[in-house]
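Hey,
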Amino acid sequence: MPIKFLAYDYDNTLGLTEKLAFGACCAVVNEVLARKGVEKRFTPGELMSRFVGRSFLGIITELAGEHNFSFGDGELDRLVLEEQNRVIEVLSAQMEPTDGVNEHLQEVQGKFGLAVVSSSALRRLRACLKAAGQEAFFPADHVFSAADSLPVPTSKPDPAIYLHALKTLGADASETVAIEDSRSGVLAAVRAGITVVGYVGSYPEEERAEASQTLIEAGASFVISNWGDLLPGLTAKGLLAA
């Protein structure tokens, strides 16, 4: 079937958010660990390396299981909100779009249905889209959050958010292409039956070869580092007409 929809991850795919967000997230994580009597502390880089592509809820619940602590009534909800607030404040002030992506979005707007499919909270996604000048490309009902758009919050690599997006858009997996920068994101889309293109343009040059291999092994059809290569790559794979 012809490709009708392009579904983009947000963090470090459409916007350069990961380092900024993990810096703010790391502060909250370390505060929680200290209050729970856990000696372990993370640097932002360590947290990002281990949990890239994961939501704060997924991170903190995994650490709770790992270090055998629990949360009181309403505590987890308060922590999720606190982390969102800190991250949004930083991103609203400092984030930028990935190199060349807004020009790419201008090129594909009107040719395909465009959607954001992310593990991040809707408040965060909307703040990022506004800060990056990308609101006009993504209608509100085409922005999907694994943290907020589902009956039960989850996180990639669970394919639930992609399955929900397909149902909401009225799209078939075979007519959709996802663009993802992380292993967990690629796995989520692949498990939903969607063709995936890996994006490594936000990685440092010296890390791109290894990142590309990781995304290919997770199931990406091919990998790009420049947005101008997306449509030609899809054409070369026979997914778009020449």
